[in-house]
Amino acid sequence: MAELVDFLVHLYDGMPVWAIPVFWIALVCILSGVVSLAVLIVRAGMQRRRGRRSPRSREDSAEAEFLWVFMVPALNEEVTIADSVGRLLDVEVTHKTILVIDDGSDDATGEILAGIASPELTVLSRVLPEARQGKSEALNDAWRYLHREVLGSGRYAGWDPRRVIVAIVDADGRLDPAAWRAAEHFAASERCGGVQSQVRIYNRRGFLTWSQDLEFAVFGSVFQLGRMAWGTANMGGNGQFNRLAALDEVTVTDAAGRIGPWRAGRLTEDQDIGLRLIHAGWRGAQADDVTIEQQGLHSLRALYRQRTRWAQGSWQVLDLLGPSVGNRRLGVAARCDQLWYLLTPLVQAWVGLSVVLSVVFLAFEWVRPEWSILILVLFYVFSAAPGIAGVLFARRRRGIVPVLANLLLAHLYLIYSWLIYPVVYRALLRQLFGRTGWAKTKREALDPAPEEGAA
């Protein structure tokens, strides 16, 4: 202990005076992150134990009390759209309608949709210049159609918005046929405004796609479940369920005077609306027993482009910092967690800066730390242990061999985490320079269906 205290006292001796605050703040951020993760893991474990006692049969669920509206934004999705819509048609719910928003596609998306004969499917065709303005604009168009046409006339006319569940499914999404399980969250609480599915990657055949699958598993199993009791589990876009009455309560007006729940120009519209629902007093939940599968990216270049967009969206929602911290509907612990959650890009950028400075100082021998076994162990614990703990919790297995295998996988996942770390800086630069345009990621061809009778 004396050695540790002495090390901390003289931790930054010899460094330039201007750099010392950078490292102390980074150390506080790292320690705070460890505490935050530990709290969420404990809470997620408690939530999982409670979830195991929930009803699991469709007959015991309240799904028939709801109208399920599946919204699928689609722009040049000829590769995956038939697969996604076909799986939505197989979702086991009593009252269902599917709204596909063809957002100005110039490939075969429209023709493929026209060839799907189902009374449950409606295609909303957007044309330029209104089309291709962003996912928020496409979803807002579908929201207006839902109120005007679906609930305004016909079979579902006058359906109570409190009993309408709007599900967002990306055009590569493969939603669980048992998505009806999400109904139990809405039935259990009238203030449940959103439920997020567990996201999986179905084309995980390499290091990058496998890591993306594990990344989603950790996020859903730790961060989302850990926040459920507070009601602050956020939305993740694909496989997101929202109560229509909740969406109606957070509507905004865009520059053209059109009303809709989603704010235009938001690169992570799911994160943005999830936070605003919480501000309005609605609760967010994570469905640990409902999955949605989507395509992962095998190309590092494409992955960087996607994650930069997501990171820039996280920089954008910093404007919600004040309402989140000042949200008196939440307890002190929940508000502290919301603060930490929103500060994630800033914390990542600061800690990354300290790492870069450390490499520079060591390379030029501007500092010469006195290393010991204890110090090396502590360095490893604080830099690697949080990520490893998250992976072990998400991939919980019994037995020494599975645990050792997961430890190995966790270290590979840490490599992936550092590999994509620079996107936080690229996203910041794009945000500072006002760059919000994005090239669409090309879908990967689907594996052919097995021939009938094949083993």
Automatic annotation (TrEMBL):
Any GO MF annotation of the entry: glycosyltransferase activity
Domain of life, per lineage: Bacteria
Pfam families in UniProt: Glyco_tranf_2_3
Transmembrane segments: 20-42, 339-367, 373-393, 400-421
Subcellular location per the Swiss-Prot or TrEMBL entry: Membrane
UniProt KW Transmembrane keyword: yes
InterPro entries: Glycosyltr_2/OpgH_subfam (IPR050321), Nucleotide-diphossugar_trans (IPR029044)
Keyword annotations: Glycosyltransferase, Membrane, Transferase, Transmembrane, Transmembrane helix
EC number: 2.4.-.-
Bilayer disposition of the protein: Multi-pass membrane protein
Membrane is among the record's keywords: yes
PANTHER family: CELLULOSE SYNTHASE CATALYTIC SUBUNIT A [UDP-FORMING] (PTHR43867:SF2)
This protein's name: Glycosyltransferase
Higher taxonomy: Bacteria, Bacillati, Actinomycetota, Actinomycetes, Micrococcales
